[in-house]
Structures are given as C-alpha cells and as structure tokens.
Amino acid sequence: MENGTAAEKWRFRGNEVLNTASAITIRGVLNEVMDNIEESGPRPIIPLGHGDPSAFPCFRTAQIAEEAIVDAVRSAQFNGYASTVGIPPARSAIADYLSKDLPYKLSPDDIYLTIGCTQAIEAILTVLARPNANILLPRPGFPFYEARAAYSHLKVRHFDLLPEKGWEVDLDAVEALADENTVAMAIINPGNPCGNVFKYQHLKKVAATARKLGILVIADEVYDHLTFGSSPFVPMGVFGNIVPVITVGSISKRWIVPGWRLGWLATNDQNGILQKYGIVDCIKGFLNITSDPATFIQGALPQILGKTGDDFFSKIVNILREVADICYDRIEEIPCITCPSKPEGSLFVMVKLNLALLENIKDDIDFCVKLAKEESVVILPGVAVGLKNWLRITFAIEPSSLEEGLGRIKAFSLRHAKKQ
Amino acid sequence: MANGSSAKWDTFQGKEERNAASGITVRSVLDEIMENLNPSDQRVVVPLGHGDPSAFPCFRTTDVAEDAIVHAVRSAKFNCYAPPVGIEPARRSIAEHLSCDLPYKLSPDDVYLTAGANHAIEVLITALARPGANILAPRPGYPLYEARAAFSNLEVRHFDLISEKGWEVDLDSVEALANDKTIAMVIINPGNPCGNILTFNHMKKIAETARKLGILVIADEVYDHLAFGSNPFVPMGVFGSITPVLTLGSISKRWIVPGWRLGWIVTADPSGILQKSWIVESLKSYLKITADPTTFVQGALPQIIKETTEDFFLKITNMLREAADMCYDGLKEIHCITCPHKPEGSMSTMVKLNLSFLEDISDDMDFCIKLAKEESVIVLPGFAVGLKNWLRITFAVEPSMLEDALGRIKTFYLRHAKKQ
C-alpha cells in the first residue's frame, strides 16, 4: 500500500519554534508589501524598502575588490577548507583595518571570520544564551536580533532610541531594564533603521552604563564609515578598556557586496574579561560546528581591505550624502510624514506617519500596502523594526529613481489627505 | 581603574554544553595530533587525516569552475543578497543535474542551497530536532551529526556498519534501536569514513526498513559519483517513493573545492510527505535566519555544472582508484593494520589497528600522535568517527606522497612491533 495512513504513520514533524522565530524578517514583510504591486509597467517599481544598493550601477563595488576575488580564485591557493576561526592573512588584514580607528592594536586572534555580519550576530547571541539570560536591544532595531534570540531562547528587553535626541540611547531605560540576568546590550552604529551616527560622548556614556551593569556591548558596525553628516564614525571598540565590546561587521555595506557573505566578530577587550569568563572559548566552539565564509574570499581580503582607494569610499559617501539630502528635502514637502532627525549615516531614515492627516489609512502596513498598489513604490512599515506607524525609507538608490519615488509618495499622500 | 565590579561579569559565563558539543570534530582531533609534529623533521608532512585534496596540483579543480566564478564576479550581477532558499538558476541547475540519476524529475523548489554540506547538516538537524526525538546515525560515521544533534538537544542512537559485509548497514540493529520517537536515519554513501559504496538492493532494503519504521532517510551524498570500484553510485532518491529522502550534497568533493562552501539539501519525496509533515516549512523557516552561500558562487553554478567535462570527472576518479589501490596494497605489508574492505569510493578507508602486534602503543590516538611525531604522517584515530582502535586513512593525496607515507607508516610499525 503506497500511502495508507501517511499522516499518523510518519514520525517526523516540523519544528514550531523555528516558525515563530523566523516570523518577522524584513524580507518577509517586504515580500508581503510587494505582493500588492499591480502594475506591470512601463512605470518601474521604486524599491525604497531594502538594504541592498548593489543592483544600481552607481553603487557598483570597487574594481579592485572584484579583481582581488579573481586573483584569489585563479591562484588555486584557496580552494581548501579554512581554519574555523578564519585564515591567518584574513584575520591579520581585518585586525589592521579595525585598529586604524582604535587607540590600541587588535591582534589577529581577536578576529573571527563569519559568513557575513549575520553569522557574527548568530555567534554572539548563541554564545550568550543561557537559561533565564536576557539581552537589551534597541527599538527601533534590526529584527534579525529578535529572531535569533527567540531561536536560542534568549529573552529580549527593548530600550528606546530617542527621536527627539537624534535617536540616542535612552540610558535611563537601559538601567531600569537590566537585572541580574542581563548579559549584554546591542547598539547599531551607524544606525539601522534610523540613519543616526552616535557621538563620542554618548558612546562613552553607553560604555560606562554597561560597565556599571556588568554587561558587555555588542556593537553592530556593519555600516561602519558610511557617514556623511557632521558626526564622524567612532567605533565602540575605542571604549574597550571600559567595557568588553564585541564588534560585528562585514564588507557587505562599505563595499556594497552583501552577496559575498564575508563578515567578522572582533573582541575588543583590553582587560581580558571575555577570555576569563569563557566567552572566547564558546565563540571558538560555535565556529567549530558551523560553516565558514568561502576560503577564497577570505584570501582576497588583504587586497580588498588594503588596496581599495579612498576615491571609491568618497564616491559612495558622496552619493549617499546626495540621496540622503534629496530624501530629507522631499519628505519635508509631504505633510503626513515627519522626519525627526536628518540622516547622517547608513542607508536609511526613520520617519513618523501622521495618520490624523490621512483618510482611510489605518496604519503603517496599510500605508505601505496601498502605496505599493497605487504607486509601485516599496517602503518598509515601521512595525517590522519595532515602531508601529513609522516608516523606514531607504535612500540608497539611483538619485533619479529616488526623486521619482518620493514624487510618487507625495502624490499618494495628497490623494489620501484628509479633506479639511 | 576600579575592578570591584568584576564579579558581575560572571552573568555571561560561557556555556559549558556548547564547548562539550564541539569537542569532537575531525578538525579538532587533527589539530591536537598536529601539535605533536616534530619541527626539526625536514621531511614534508603527509596529511592522510582530512578529506581535502585541493592543495595538491594533480587534484586542482577544472578551469571551467574557476572561469565560471570569475565570470559571475565580473558580471556584477551577483553582489546582492540571495533569497534564503537560493537563487532560481542555481536551484534549477541542481534539480536538473540530480534528476539525471532519478526515475522522476526534481523541481527547483525541491532544492535548498546551503553554505556547504556541513551547513546542510546544521540546517537539517536544526529543522528536525524536537524535544524527546532521536535520530539513528552510522558507526563509524561523520562526527558533525553528533555535534549538531548535541547542540540541538536531539538524541543520537548508533547502528553499526558491518565491516565483514562491505560496511553495509546493520538493518537488524536499526530496527532494534528505533522507537516511536525516532524520526530519521542517516546514511553516508559513498561512505565516509569507510570508502564503501552501497548496492542498489541494500539501499532498497534500507528504504523499506525506514518506511516500516515511519522514518525518513537523510542521505549524505557529499561524495556523490566518486565511485571507482565495481559498484556504481546509486542516489538514495531513487527510493524516494518508498520513504521520503532528504539528500545532502555539495560541489566540494566532486569538484575538489571544499573552500567554496556551496552545498544543498534536496527533498527527494515524490509523495510530498515532507511537505505534509511540515518538515519543508521548518527547513524554509530556519533558512531565513541562517547563513547563506555566496551569491556569485550560486550564480556560477549553472555554468560549472553544464560545462565541466567528463574528462575532468574521469581524471579525478582514475586518480582516486590508483590511490585507493596503492593504499590497499601498501597496507597489506603493515601487519598491525587490517583493511577489511578494499575502498571503492569517496576519499578514505577505515582500517583496524591490531594493538597486540605493537609494543607500547596504548590506543588509536596514541598511535596517531606517535606517528605524527616520529614520521610526520597524519592519520585520523578511529574514535573521532566512532570506532576506537581503528584508523581512518585518506588516500586522496598526491600519489608520490602517498607512497612515501605508506613507507613511513611501515617503518613506524617495524620500529614499534612487538618482539617475538
């Protein structure tokens, strides 16, 4: 008999925890929004919801990076398995790269290669997860942290970023939230989704607060150096003598190559606390049983990090400055949307939706769904990043497309404006 | 600087179970053995412990594969994030490629791309793990299954492979071990560590046994087509209508590029049982929050699969056959070692250590450590793969090195042979 009582007979079942943990991802929410797009042309879809400008020619990566990969592949020196912590030349190259902005030198042994910043986040959350432990995450934030924490049974508490203060961390909230089971707090700088850049003094206060609470700081610096306003990028590792800092980063954003899947976890811990408390051993243990970034991309890293010219970096930052300005200026013309803080970094800006000024739009998801349907413009509803009735707008696209997209948003908002 | 608060750091003590889980991996055991190498030995170290011949020029991958990567990188079309399941052209090309050896056609939707087969193991074990469940794994086997199962709190029960019967699965022990919480059994074919190839009839019996028990089969086919003896390679998916099969594979072994980290999970399940039991849903959910393979390696895949010539594959299998023969013949002269089954596939063979023929060698690890120290030859002690006092010897190395190594092992044996 072929099928019989198939459902009862088979002993395997899916894993419910997984379904819940991965429920809210940015991609998932964007897919839902995009399902509402009706037009099939000739007007192009304007994507202002993603975090990946690599498809746009003006954002193409540096030629030297492509050539570094080609050289590494053709050398046939990097077709084998890598050491689970990463190959020595890659670890050295990253240590040198990060140390440029620190008051001390990182050792190659402080660097662990991962499959993108994503896997670095996975590593540190997995390592920290213990029964009853909790971590403090920013709101709004990056939902991958919540997803991985849920999967590892690590509890999450949220502190606010304050829009009226340039999205600074609400440090009073951090102190109020922490208890004896809190193990870490995460900050994302430059900020996703807010587009802010934390100032030196504020980061120092964050470090002091973390130290007082006995927790480590996870510094998500995946957008490192992508700043175009008045605040310079300050790596949290600068305060590694005050509090242990785990920096997670990658080449994905600065080199516009998220598909290359090359990231790192760096331990900035001048007092050796992470080693002493077994965190370093656990990171190595995690890496021992997980997959690694492609060896030849690791092999290309010294050339990529060492030889990319400042002209490439300046070019990218200039484009970002230009599009951030366009975005901020056009948003000022749209009454139902308020931007509390002009973006200074990363690829995004968080804006508030004033539903009171709109007719028949019930919330941020409804706004985005109708916008997709009527104008073929995609933006991310703020609920996906923890702030309902806000919106995250990505400005990192071709400038002319951005103008077009913002024009359509304005038209949409006029069409739906509440009549006086 | 005040250290008074240092006691508070212990809230993030590293997790002990994590370290235990990663304790035994092939790489970690080999690392330990290699620490005993004698730095003043001028001879080249011969690595017969791992499964990575990519460093040897004779095993260099085909130009076609290198060209495909270069082409994909230079196109700048694959610098973006990929969907969690993999990009469509890659999924399609693997579906077509694998369908050549199956009595039904796989759909691209049956294919899920992973960062190598090790990652596929991670994804599968994670997706299948449920409280109280268990899986059946072969002994000897591949220790990552045990490491990932421990990490996911999934119990592993071991069935034996029968050395006197060409390392066939002991199906009686499979039936005896299974209970109502057993959800799957793992087979590795071509065999790692044993170097055997399962016959069609035996595999059919495995499928029937699994069906009777209501469990699925995880078919680890990472060494697919690396068969050079009298038994042809038969994919387990051939029996997918008897019992659902989850096939794991990658380009790592057949193309000799383990560092490229491109693998797959394929649902070979024409009756759609995996879909109905939510296994597919769990797989997709976990794929959303786990690492991805490099997008441009995915992009290169169709060209790699389509354009690699039979000549290349024949060259590799011919080299493996010669090496396997040389190894088998050479071991016959080393009386403390018995090879119960001439290898006919994959890259290694499992041999028994007869400690009674040796003076002052206490066990397999001791043998390997002393061999490394005295002769600069690395072999893997059998405990690492589940069979204490056996050895796994990799023959996939440059032929002259293999010959040299066999000579050195013989010398070692004679030096330590028990005096009569």
Automatic annotation (TrEMBL), chain A:
Q: Does the keyword Transferase apply?
A: yes
Q: Which family does it belong to?
A: Belongs to the class-I pyridoxal-phosphate-dependent aminotransferase family.
- Domain named Aminotransferase class I/classII large is located at 45-409
Listed InterPro entries: Aminotransferase_I/II_large (IPR004839), PyrdxlP-dep_Trfase (IPR015424), PyrdxlP-dep_Trfase_major (IPR015421), PyrdxlP-dep_Trfase_small (IPR015422), TyrNic_aminoTrfase (IPR005958)
Which NCBIfam families does the record cross-reference, listed alphabetically? tyr_nico_aTase
- What are the names of the required cofactors? pyridoxal 5'-phosphate
Q: Which UniProt keywords apply?
A: Aminotransferase, Pyridoxal phosphate, Transferase
What GO molecular-function term can you cite, just one?
Answer: L-tyrosine-2-oxoglutarate transaminase activity
A biological process term (GO) from this entry = L-tyrosine catabolic process
Mind giving the lineage of the organism this protein is from? Eukaryota, Viridiplantae, Streptophyta, Embryophyta, Tracheophyta
Please give the name of this protein: Tyrosine aminotransferase
Q: Which residues carry this modification: N6-(pyridoxal phosphate)lysine?
A: K253
Its domain of life?
Eukaryota
UniProtKB/TrEMBL annotation, chain B:
> What is the top-level taxon of the source organism?
Eukaryota
The Aminotransferase class I/classII large domain covers 45-409
User: Could you state a single Gene Ontology molecular function term?
Assistant: L-tyrosine-2-oxoglutarate transaminase activity
Under InterPro entries, the record lists: Aminotransferase_I/II_large (IPR004839), PyrdxlP-dep_Trfase (IPR015424), PyrdxlP-dep_Trfase_major (IPR015421), PyrdxlP-dep_Trfase_small (IPR015422), TyrNic_aminoTrfase (IPR005958)
Cofactors (names)? pyridoxal 5'-phosphate
Which CDD domains does the annotation name?
Answer: AAT_like
Which SUPFAM superfamilies does its entry note? PLP-dependent transferases
Tell me the residues on which N6-(pyridoxal phosphate)lysine occurs. Answer: K253
Q: Name one Pfam family in it.
A: Aminotran_1_2
Protein's GO biological process: L-tyrosine catabolic process
Q: Which UniProt keywords apply?
A: Aminotransferase, Pyridoxal phosphate, Transferase
The record's family statement is:
Belongs to the class-I pyridoxal-phosphate-dependent aminotransferase family.
Supply the name of the protein: Aminotransferase
Species this protein is from? Actinidia chinensis var. chinensis
